Backbone:
């Protein structure tokens, strides 16, 4: 399970949000005949960008039942601080599209891409491609950047693949799946007597990071998100999920740990965030390899779903890589349906 955008923008100072060579961010539009200009996002303020983000908020609500307001507000704060690198598409003085990215050490992460009416107007797809090419070129030319990651959740799989594939990115189709809690019956939380389920606590960070690192070793998801490859990376991932609102508001009440009683070892975990007042989103669920096929993952999902149901939540969603066939089959068996297919892209030098 990989958390998907909204990218969890970190506290200032913890991640490089600016281009080390600002001149490289001022790439001029290739199509001189077009009335659309592609300009550095840092030329603008939240006043300029807010109408577009209001449109994007409606799209996230319609497609994903996701309240994008907190993410939009966070983006606007960084825009006003002039520290969010990216590009804006301008026509007749109005911003109608934008894309931004962040730096995480030697990695660049494409945080978002949105063009108003991008799903309906053919010319909007051209603008999406131009914005992407500016971002990709900037990141690939940035000193010290050796890896780029992107997940574009509100864009249908394949629609934006060409700019990425042309620049050597690998593509990983992923599913956004959801289960209605209002109609679904209560799931069984039975688990082998060797295990015990308990709520998440703030003291679980270190052990949870170790479980994530071990659970994803050699897994396709560690190819998509390299934070899973190291203990320090998994700790950063957890910190973003739990402490920052970009991926929804962390919901400790619906997040659980499974421990092996005899070994006193954490065997698995599930983390859930609130992405709308009545919608939960699983940001992480994983089980150590030695404890798989013993009902641990199913019990964790059941605990989260049932806990949300008692609080009158209407839906639980998650994302999963299409190639992770066993996980997809488990989610379908529990009542999740695939709502849309989107792409994750990775480039590595």
Residues:
């Amino acid at each position: 399970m990989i958390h998907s955008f909204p990218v969890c923008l970190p506290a200032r100072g913890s991640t490089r949000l600016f281009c080390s060579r600002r001149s490289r961010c001022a790439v001029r539009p290739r199509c001189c005949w077009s009335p659309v200009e592609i300009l550095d996002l840092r030329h603008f303020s939240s006043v300029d960008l807010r109408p577009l983000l209001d449109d994007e908020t409606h799209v996230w609500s319609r497609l994903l039942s996701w309240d994008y307001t907190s993410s939009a507000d966070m983006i606007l704060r960084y825009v006003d601080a002039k520290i969010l690198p990216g590009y804006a598409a301008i026509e007749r003085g109005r911003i109608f599209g934008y894309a931004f990215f962040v730096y995480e050490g030697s990695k660049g992460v494409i945080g978002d891409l949105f063009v108003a009416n991008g799903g309906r107007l053919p010319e909007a797809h051209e603008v999406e491609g131009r914005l992407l090419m500016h971002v990709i070129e900037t990141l690939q030319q940035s000193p010290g950047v050796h890896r780029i990651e992107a997940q574009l959740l509100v864009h249908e799989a394949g629609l934006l693949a060409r700019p990425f594939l042309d620049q050597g990115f690998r593509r990983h189709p992923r599913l956004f799946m959801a289960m209605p809690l209002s109609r679904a019956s209560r799931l069984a939380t039975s688990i082998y007597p060797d295990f015990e389920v308990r709520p998440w606590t703030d003291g679980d960070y270190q052990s949870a990071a170790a479980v994530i690192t071990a659970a994803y070793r050699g897994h396709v998801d560690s190819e998509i998100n390299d934070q899973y490859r190291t203990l320090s990376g998994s700790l950063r991932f957890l910190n973003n999920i739990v402490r920052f609102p970009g991926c929804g508001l962390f919901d400790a009440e619906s997040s659980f740990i499974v421990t092996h009683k005899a070994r006193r070892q954490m065997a698995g975990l599930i983390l859930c965030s609130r992405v709308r007042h009545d919608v939960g989103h699983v940001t992480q669920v994983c089980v150590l390899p030695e404890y798989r096929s013993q009902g641990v993952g199913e019990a964790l999902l059941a605990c989260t779903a049932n806990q949300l149901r008692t609080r009158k939540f209407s839906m639980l969603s998650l994302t999963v890589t299409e190639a992770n066939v066993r996980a997809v089959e488990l989610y379908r068996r529990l009542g999740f349906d695939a709502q849309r297919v989107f792409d994750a892209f990775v480039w590595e030098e």
Observations:
- The chain has a mean pLDDT of 88.
